[in-house]
# Entry
Amino acid sequence: MKKLLMGLGASLLAIVAVVLVRTALYSAEPISHTPASESQSPRAFNPQFDAQQIAGNLSRAIQFQTISSELHNAATRAQFEQFLDWLAATYPQVHAQLDVQPLGINPEQPYTLLFTWRGSEPALQPVMFSAHYDVVPVIPGTEDEWQQPPYSGAIDDTHIWGRGALDDKSAAIALMEAATQMLAEGFQPRRTLYIAITSDEEIGGSSGTAAVVETLKNDGVQLAWTLDEGSFVLRGFVPGVEQDVASINVAEKGYLTLDLVARGDGGHSSMPPRETAVDTLAGALMKLQAAPIAGGLEGLSAEMFDAIAPHMSFEKRMLFANRWLFGGLIERALSSNPSTAAMLHTTVAPTMLRASVKDNVLPIEAVATINFRLHPRDSEQTVVEYLNTTIDDPRVTVQVRNSNSPSRVSSTENAGYHRVQHATHSTYDHVITAPGLTVGGTDSSRYEAVAEDNYRFNPMVVTRDDVKGFHGTNERISVDNMLKAAEFYSHLMESAGNP
# Structure
């Protein structure tokens, strides 16, 4: 027994030693303001930005109610046309010195603009920056909950308010500001740069964004990489990390919507059977709730936390440095938070229910509409198999309504990622950069057809309070954020344009 206890003690000491050594090695190098790189030369241009002017321009942009889901209305189409007229008047240098093409698969709605900044060396593979200016509508009945009217573009001491402030007119305006100032500096890229200002991202991009892709294909253009919206410089999102985290997303989830259809005997509600179609459907939904789709801290999710975790406190670093021992504990902790749980697996969200046509009629069918955001490891097929296996009830059938596959995962080793990373460090002090996964949809899903890599990142700082404005109430962005975004894009234009 004594030998056994000594052996166990020695094994425990060995494990402790391994854990401590791995933790000591799992540490981050100090974050420099501008990382040195042989591929990056000192900055040759010094664009001058006026924060209040940029804020004023975003304010005016917000006042155009460019709600893409309402493009069937003539009044809304007029808002899009007025916005484009205003954009041309506000940024005349960009419109005059760059080639500009109004685009739209729907020829009656050429509301997307593709700017071409011709490079002096056509053999260099082009890159593209993208942002959308269309917005979602304000949720009916919430207008009085806004601190400032949602299309006022109101500016206070620190912020610009209104629909589109974060999603995504801010990026569109920052791109225009950066291009204007770089033109004023006499910047001439060696590599051709494209700027896409799209008009229908919020409704899937089937006209404007699709026309950008079609135009590039017809012109024989294969982009080295693109940068579009996706994530932000995250402040206060990662427990145990004091620094801001710039999540440069290299992939996005897929989108699958389907119906679960439960069938039963109809009839009068005064004589209900033991189980109705509604009961059957409820049982199926409870089974899904009890058995979520498998996931875990692997692949891209692991890469993200491997970039962030070395900056954590010793105790948390110890956990991540020894996932072989603490992996289950880490995954349970991450799964308890919706924002980090979404990084680990395909999410399941029942969103709509329908059954009887009348309160005293038993339904023949009860239907639940479920939205899945597909992790890159999953597909429509694997989700349907999961549903059939988990529910295991012949009375419940699965009917797919629409589906988009997850994106491919772009490289974190190629020049595009490093240039976005460099521009981020050139703009923000002491920021951690990490690859990430966009849990929603962006125009980048279409850009895959014409680009080798697609990156998804907006160069603005957001907090947990800020993100409540996405498609919700009190959307806003700080004046300082707009200044930083313009600076970021100017860094990136110079770096990408002169490889």
Q: What stands out?
A: The first strand starts at residue 99 and ends at 103.
